[in-house]
Amino acid sequence: MVQQTDKRDGAGQVEVRTRRWSVSLVWIVPILAILIGASLVVRNWMQQGPVIAISFHTGEGLVAHKTQVKYRSVVIGEVTTVDLADDKKSVVAKVQLSNDARAFATQGARFWVVRPRIGVGGVSGVDTLLSGSFIGADSGESKVPEKSFVGLELPPPITYDEKGKRFVLTASDLGSLDIGSSIYYRKIPVGEVVSFALQGDGKGVEIGVFVQAPYDSFVTADTRFWNASGVDMQIGANGLKIDTESLSSILVGGLAFGSPDFAPQAEAAADQAHFQLFADRDTALAPPSGQAQYLQLRFDQAMRGLSVGAPVEFKGVEFGRVTSVQLDYDATRQTFPVVVEAVIYPQRLGPVHRKMLSVFKHSEGDMDGARRLIGTFVEHGLRAQARSGNLITGQMFISLDFYPDAPKVAFDKTADPIIIPTLPGSLEQLQEQLQRVVERISKLPLESIASNLDGSLRELRASLKQFNGQTLPEVKVALDEVHKTLRTANSAISEDSPQRERMGETLDELERMSRSLRDLADYLGRHPESLIRGRPKAATAAELEP
């Protein structure tokens, strides 16, 4: 009974089944679209690089979502916004870099706007006339991240990856140099000027240069740099000499470097090494000047044309220069002499300087010995003279030479600087000679000479008048008579004239007579006795028989 009851209870329960959740096919397309969109967003986010801000002086040529950032003509970013800076003195361009351009978001990176420009190296940025301006980029050495940059107004002359070395040149002024001016080695362009700045004390400039590899190895500790701008023109005994590095250096300036022949072989100079910039090639490659000696010269003549820097020569060899030209007052003679101070470098005389030191047993740098040596030379006629170096420009120079006939002058061994006696210049001597000639001419009796000359001219005029009035007509008559005579002679010797026929007969007779005389001379040569005995009779036939 119990079992039946249980069966009835179980049969009366209702079985509840749970329905499984299922996705309809309608939702597959939206889900796939969401997944694809999300993947694109993630991919785009992963491909994007950092965002940097670049400030420029002006926003010319910068357009948001259009202006690109390029490195070696490859796009590495794009300008997203261009806004005015808070100080209203510049503009700030926000740039979205690509993921591959993260190296450009570091310290030392440089950015500039590429526009059409005409510079030292020629015309650049011409392609931007069609495509529009873009921002050029150059990475730096640092790995430290950076978000804000100050853009350059001009493209940098060299980029980070260029091989070579930088050097610093010091000069008194910049001259005609500019950023981009070429540097030449043996007339081959090997680098350029990359920067220049005024020194801290304002007494000179520092010029940054870059020499490309492998030419940078030719820059050693003994290398000399000089200004190669313009044309170096010299007129000497061999004619006109013109020297220049290139046409570009004439127009925009340039530098050159080299090592003097006397310099030993040295190792390559280190990066950022300092050098002095010389004015020209001859000065740069000149041998060492050695110990300097200062001289003082006093001239009683005007020194117009003698300027500071004028050469000082000994026997035609330049070995110094003029340092000052000043006027002085001599109270004793009440005159105004011109005091010229100069510096000389005896070592520039070459082997003769060393020979003199050996002969007089002086050591290099012995100033007292040098003073005694100059005193000895003065006693033997050493004098200074101002000479004209160029008749066209009137420039003068100082010449030291020996004049044995010069008046004796006491040498002051204690004077500092050393005083060397002087002589009047060649031009001054010429003026004195001309003055003496003028004085002699002025002493001549010019009035009496002029009076006598005037009388002679009057007599000559009267003689010419008489000649024209009397002699010329007679000469004309005589010439007419000569003309008539020549005409008569011409008619007498014409072809058909009887005189010519008789002359021909006469010539024939003369020819026969000369032949007879020749026969007579031959006979007398064979029979000289005929002159005494006479001509023998002709032999008979019987006498001729044997």
UniProtKB/TrEMBL annotation:
Kindly give the Pfam families that the UniProt entry links to this protein. MlaD (PF02470)
Q: Which UniProt keywords apply?
A: Cell inner membrane, Cell membrane, Membrane, Transmembrane, Transmembrane helix
Q: What is its main location?
A: membrane
Question: Which residue range or ranges hold the Mce/MlaD domain?
Answer: 49-137, 164-224, 293-402
Query: Cellular location of this protein?
Result: Cell inner membrane
Question: Where does the sequence pass through the membrane?
Answer: 21-42
Gene Ontology cellular component list = plasma membrane
Its protein name is Mammalian cell entry protein
